[in-house]
Amino acid sequence: MIPRYLVDVELDKLPVIDKDVIVIGAGIAGLFTAIRASRHHSVLMITKKSLLDSNTRYAQGGIAAVISDEDSPAYHRQDTLIAGAGLCSDEAVDVLVHEGPKGVHSLIKMGTQFDQENGEFALTKEGAHSQRRILHANGDATGYEIVRALSENAIANEKIEVWDDHFVIDLVTQDGECCGAIVQKPGGERLFVRGKATILCSGGAGQLYRYTTNPEVATGDGVAMAYRAGAYIRDAEFVQFHPTALCYPGAPRFLISEAVRGEGAVLRNIKGERFMDRYHEQLELAPRDIVARAIVSEMEATKSTFVYLDVTHEPVEMVKHRFPTIYEYCLKYGLDLTSDWIPVAPAMHYMMGGVKTDLNGETNIKRLFACGEVSSTGVHGANRLASNSLSEAIVFGRRIVKRIEHMPTLQKEPKFYNEVERNSASMQAVVERRLKLQKIMVRYVGLKRSETGLKKGLEELKRQLPIFQSILTEREEFEFANMLTCATLMTEAAITREESRGAHYREDFPARDDRVWRKHTVLHRTKGMTEERIEDV
């Protein structure tokens, strides 16, 4: 079993730092929530690298919100529910589509500059959206622009203290309440940071897979530490693979935005044949899971490691103007978006499940909140609608701050218990272990799954569990322990769900089964696997 804490410490012997609000992680969720919270509270932001290292920074497509007169919250709601394949929370989606526009205006007030045309916001359309409702910045650098504006804001704010290069090892709890966190400084010294509210904004877990569009820091830390603390982890089996990541020797798996297909790009197999008509009537703009599996099927049929994305038939100026970042990036590797077919393949992109929260972002542990990709608010269901992630972060960030305003200060003096005998046996190099874990996840818990493969994967992951009996000191060791925790949770949830729905596809159960499986899987450290029925949508 995974222990309650990763390290043994005596809390009363650690230096204590008191803050009103502790924000773990940066990205849009952490930055936005910290800035809002700083109006009435002292805030500490802890990032394991820097304010600019997060998934948000790499978000190209944009942020989805009802801005145009031709659009409506009802349309946005319907698109989100259809993509979520019957697992969205009705109330959470309502909150998102009605409060999204307000959130976008807050971002603009904080200095984010979205692209405009003729004095109005330039809106684009992405896969599975029925209307043009995606705001973007600098063409395809939306995330970077949001992070730029918000981090400038946060750095200039006297009520926000930022700790870069600090690692949060564990959350400290007492009687079902979160009192703060144990943090390791760059030099290895540990502190106890105590706060009235702790907000996890630590992003996703892309590093569980060999091929991912996520940055190095996305190792699932928030989900793992919340699980150890006794939070519910919901829908861990739903992992979104982005269909089109650059697949070229020497190049990282760089995201080629869905918006490129939104502006007319088509997919071709290595024989040059356009193939999406064989898989879905929406062709290249079908939901992401369908496009990703279609690509894998074509790769298998043609014995290739990629397919092509072709936008060469669109006007050169439009492509360069709309996708400057992608155009420049491909050019670095000798690929010209306007005249070359670009080799692409699916890569792990986004985690739909996460730490279960209510509509105010609060978990089942009092004073512990989760916001952004680390959370499971109920908005995304079994498959996230493109560009809903950035809006989810700001909508629920606002709600978390409102909830914190009504909370009394913390009175508890927590005690620290641990139930594990640890030894200092030498560990196999973490780099090797990490690579092995990534290979297991790609092979058995990837785009296509089956009971045999998932059980084999789980067995191989469990062989790594003795790491929890070791004395861990380095950041890489903590990260690996967190990755192993998340990988195990994902695999267990995927074994349990005997159907195919949204991003979870079982070759042995290819059909969706609403009669039995219209429910969530929920994992808890001591209660194990439970299920949660869905109130009707």
Automatic annotation (TrEMBL):
It catalyses: L-aspartate + O2 = iminosuccinate + H2O2. The keyword Flavoprotein applies. GO terms for cellular component: cytoplasm. Residues 434-530 form the Fumarate reductase/succinate dehydrogenase flavoprotein-like C-terminal domain. GO terms for biological process: 'de novo' NAD+ biosynthetic process from L-aspartate. It is an enzyme of class 1 (oxidoreductase). Its EC number is 1.4.3.16. It comes from the Bacteria. GO terms for molecular function: L-aspartate oxidase activity; steroid dehydrogenase activity, acting on the CH-CH group of donors. Its main location: cytoplasm. Residues 20-390 form the FAD-dependent oxidoreductase 2 FAD-binding domain. Signal peptide: none annotated. It is found in: Cytoplasm. InterPro entries: FAD-dep_OxRdtase_2_FAD-bd, FAD/NAD-bd_sf, Fum_R/Succ_DH_flav-like_C_sf, Fum_Rdtase/Succ_DH_flav-like_C, NadB, Succ_DH/fumarate_Rdtase_cat_sf. The active site is at 288 (proton acceptor). The keyword Acyltransferase does not apply. Its cofactor is FAD. Keywords: FAD, Flavoprotein, Oxidoreductase, Pyridine nucleotide biosynthesis. Pathway: Cofactor biosynthesis; NAD(+) biosynthesis; iminoaspartate from L-aspartate (oxidase route): step 1/1. Belongs to the FAD-dependent oxidoreductase 2 family. NadB subfamily. Catalyzes the oxidation of L-aspartate to iminoaspartate. This is L-aspartate oxidase. It comes from Paenibacillus paeoniae. The lineage of its organism: Bacteria, Bacillati, Bacillota, Bacilli, Bacillales. The gene is nadB.
